[in-house]
Write a structure and sequence with these properties.
Length: 176
């Protein structure tokens, strides 16, 4: 199967230091919905892996997160695309869970869910150094999208990671 894993905030939608707490605050980045649709139409299965510590911070609950994701899925569907599954970590950074990126837990769960033995041919697209770390620990192929959250200084130690301005640019390269 052709599987691709996407981070959410800063890749599909604009991120916010105040967290994305409601559907109204979830605003797609230009071209990202169409990019997901192009992947869908080329036979890719799309999984989203997203840190959502705002849940543990009490900023929103699982029901609200589902409403946010209903909006995301709806807007993607309007473009002709589909997100097959969404995985989130609700924990705080100091909780010590195995799912919060840079831990690879969500990527491992995705691999298991789709019965993919090896993620070595699977792109994981994120906008933070922690996304690259999670991808590397899961032995997936990291791709970086440059967002306001990208810590450029922390990138140096990660060597050659393909980097694009937007998801739509990365997808155009993946599909050529
Ligand atoms: Mg992000
Ligand atoms: Zn977690």
């Amino acid at each position: 199967m052709k599987l691709i894993i996407l981070d959410r905030d800063g890749v599909i939608n604009h991120d916010s230091f105040d967290y994305i707490k409601t559907p109204d605050e979830w605003l797609p980045i230009t071209g990202s919905l169409d990019a997901i649709a192009r992947l869908t139409q080329c036979g890719y299965t799309i999984a989203v892996a997203t840190n959502q510590s705002g849940i543990s911070r009490g900023l929103y609950d699982e029901a609200m997160l589902n409403r946010i994701h209903d909006k995301m899925r709806h807007l993607v569907a309007l473009e002709g695309g589909s997100i097959d599954s969404i995985w989130h970590c609700p924990h705080l950074p100091d909780f010590g869970c195995i799912c919060r990126k840079p831990s690879p837990g969500m990527l491992h769960s995705i691999a298991e869910h789709y019965s993919v033995n090896d993620l070595c041919d699977v792109n994981y697209i994120g906008d933070r150094v922690t996304d690259i770390q999670a991808a590397k620990r899961a032995r997936a192929k990291p791709i970086l999208i440059q967002s306001p959250m990208t810590d450029s200084d922390g990138l140096a130690e990660h060597g050659e990671v393909p980097c694009y301005r937007r998801l739509s640019d990365a997808v155009s390269v993946i599909l050529t």
